[in-house]
Amino acid sequence: MKIVRARLLRLVLAASLGILVGACAGTTRAPKTVLVAGATGQTGQQVVRHLQLAGFHVRALVRDMDKAQSQLGEGVELVKGDVKDPASLDAAVAGVAAVISSIGARGKDGPDRPEMIDFEGVRNLVDAAKTARVQQFVLVSSRGVTQDDHPLNRMFGDVLRWKLKGEDYLRQSGLAYTVIRPGGLLNEPAGKSDIAFEQGDRRIGNTVLAIPREDVAIVCVQALLNPEARFRTFEIHRTGGPPVTGWKAKFAGLKPDAGQAAR
């Protein structure tokens, strides 16, 4: 009789453990997947790293698989494609929750000129994301895009004009979006000072408003974590003061873009 009771007790314990494990497994969700375009660039690599730190699964859209593997390391899903080739983007966006684009032209002329990357490349990504029903699209653009006479337009093939066209296409797409316009990009560590959030793309004259690339990457990731960032376009640069801790308040202080107030 004791043997029977002991066996019954073991069966009950085993069944209870199975139910507990099953319940835990049922509540454990796979991390959301975020596609990063421009992942092997200096800013893109920081985006990848901070997405991983935040617990996202990262899928990187790359043209050179070997280069990407050496730069991004293990733990990043690599998908070969080119923003200039719409057909190559379908597999890249399939099943992703969000897209972060930090792509940029590689010179004022040639196949990777601003028109082809900062406008048509962004347009192709947006179209693919819309078809795939991506939940949010974060675009890294640039301060100064609304200023036609900006020196960068004369020097680099109207780069800011093409960036603005890319922004406009995203804003009109119907996707939930965040457009981030950093100032001059620095290869310095993040989190050393406060970050100013502005809107209106104000002219700054000879003043240099800069920000570390890593801080830009952190803002991109925080835009995914804070719904207040959606349907906002804004400029960022580092400023005096302690590092940011209240990201929700930063985004909540921004006005929604024209026509987006009800969202």
Distance between the termini: 68 Å
The total domain count is 2
Q: What is the number of helical segments per DSSP (H or I, 4+ residues)?
A: 9
How is the quaternary structure best described?
A: single chain
**How many β-strand runs?**
10
CATH architecture of the largest domain: 3-Layer(aba) Sandwich
The succession of helices and strands, N to C, reads HEHEHEHEHEHHEEEEHEH
What's the CATH class label of the largest domain? Alpha Beta
* Alpha-beta content class: alpha/beta
Point out poorly predicted stretches.
1-27
Tell me about the largest β-sheet.
Answer: 8 strands, mixed
Mean pLDDT value: 90
Helix fraction by DSSP (H/I, runs of at least 4)? 25-40%
Q: What overall geometry do the principal axes of the alpha carbons give?
A: globular
Query: Which percent range describes the beta-strand content?
Result: 15-25%
List key phrases describing it.
two-stranded parallel sheet; Rossmann fold; eight-stranded mixed beta sheet; 263 residues; 2 domains; alpha/beta; 9 helices; globular
Protein topology:
Layout: H1 2-27, E1 33-37, H2 42-53, E2 57-62, H3 65-72, E3 76-80, H4 90-93, E4 98-101, H5 114-131, E5 136-140, H6 151-155, H7 159-171, E6 177-182, E7 184-186, E8 194-198, E9 210-212, H8 213-225, E10 232-239, H9 247-252
Parallel strand pairs: 1-2, 1-4, 2-3, 4-5, 5-6, 6-10, 7-9
Antiparallel strand pairs: 8-10
Helix pairs in contact: 2-8, 5-7
Please characterize this protein's 3D structure.
This protein has helices spanning 2-27, 42-53, 65-72, 90-93, 114-131, 151-155, 159-171, 213-225, 247-252, and strands spanning 33-37, 57-62, 76-80, 98-101, 136-140, 177-182, 184-186, 194-198, 210-212, 232-239. The chain is of the alpha/beta class. It has two domains: 1-30; 31-252, 3-Layer(aba) Sandwich (Rossmann fold). Strands 3-2-1-4-5-6-10-8 form an eight-stranded mixed β-sheet, with helices on both faces. Strands 7-9 form a two-stranded parallel sheet. Mean pLDDT is 90; it is low at 1-27.
